[in-house]
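Reviewer 2 asked us to include a model.

Predict the structure of this chain.
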Amino acid sequence: MAKKEKFTCPGYSSTQIVKKGRRKNKFGKIQRYECKSCGKSFSLRELKGRVYPAKLIMEAVSLFNKGYSMSEAVKQTRKRFKTKVSKSAVDSWIKEFKNICTYWRIRGKGLKLFSPEKVIFRKTFFHQIPYKFQYHQAKVKMFIKDYFSGLARYLKGIPKECPDEMFLAGKARGSRMKIDFPVKAERKTNYACRLAGLALAMTRNNRERHEVVQDFMLANDTATLACEVPVCLCSREAGKLSFFKDGGLDFRQGVTGHID
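Predicted model (structure tokens):
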């Protein structure tokens, strides 16, 4: 029996979700859901009032922000989604979301430094599970200078110098550590929330959310420089962080992890 997929409300982060019928457009039937906590309805792959799926719209915007020309962005979108998309439609999406997808302001400068095919560097590390390390080469070159130049060298050196054996030798994983650190959660909507919200509209299920948000923000945000950056703290460094509780994990040999 297939495992039942669990969803969360995009606005309320509640898991109290029920199906609320389907709506039909030229791309097929779209399942609607309703959040029992806030009463709002939503789907997992559309933007309100849109004929085209959110994934298609956001993919076209991302292609343009990566540096592809309008014609090439339209061509690749048509090929991937096997549907007709006009230049005027893509242009209107870029203009509509430019206040959230702010990379368009420096797109021209980035294009002078790297081609669309090379602007985002990618390498997958198999550190017990696959991690897709990425960094935006144009943003790193434009923004990380002077005092922070060491960070640029670190990111550029990871593909060849990352000590894979440190992540495979059974060391304590940062994601499994218990952190005894007071955190006060407040509901707040800001620029990052709006940007992530657009990315979440592209996903079909919760399993896709993590990677889709990373890819989208890396291509369209001005502040996101890298994703899944491998890091390792030696035992001396980990011991100085008093908010770590080992939870039964042995981090005498260090702590490894990936920073989203």
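DSSP finds ten helices and eleven strands in the chain. The two ends are 33 Å apart (CA to CA). We have added this to the supplementary material.
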